[in-house]
Design a protein that fits this description.
Length: 114
């Protein structure tokens, strides 16, 4: 994985590499509202992710996910908060984003608590 200084740098690079859909977390689905696509946890893969902490506010923490779906033939970007502003949802989507694939790639104290 690459290292980026800012969230904007990461999203710009991912966009250049074909991650064009603007995805949002909507309860139990990840949605591409422009195409009326609602993906469940089984419908997508997390290709890459990048974690950022706000320089002026350490509680301003986000993860940028590069997501692909062969079912819907799309590649997109999902930006999600973690830490203080994290979604406390217990859905399968949150489990996949924060535990299943991500926790194996984070180090020590960065790993989410199951």
């Amino acid at each position: 994985m690459k290292n980026f200084e800012t969230l904007v740098d990461a999203t710009n690079d991912l966009t250049k590499r074909g991650y064009e859909a603007n995805l949002s977390l909507e309860g139990d689905t990840i949605d591409d509202k422009s195409k009326d696509i609602h993906m469940t946890a089984d419908d997508f893969e997390i290709d890459e992710f990048y974690r950022f902490e706000g320089q002026s506010n350490p509680s301003d923490m986000s993860i940028v996910y590069a997501i692909s779906s062969s079912k819907y033939n799309l590649k997109g970007i999902l930006i999600n908060a973690y830490g203080t502003y994290a979604d406390d949802s217990s859905s399968a989507i949150s489990a996949k984003l924060h535990h299943n694939q991500v926790s194996t790639n984070l180090h020590g104290s960065d790993r989410p608590v199951e």
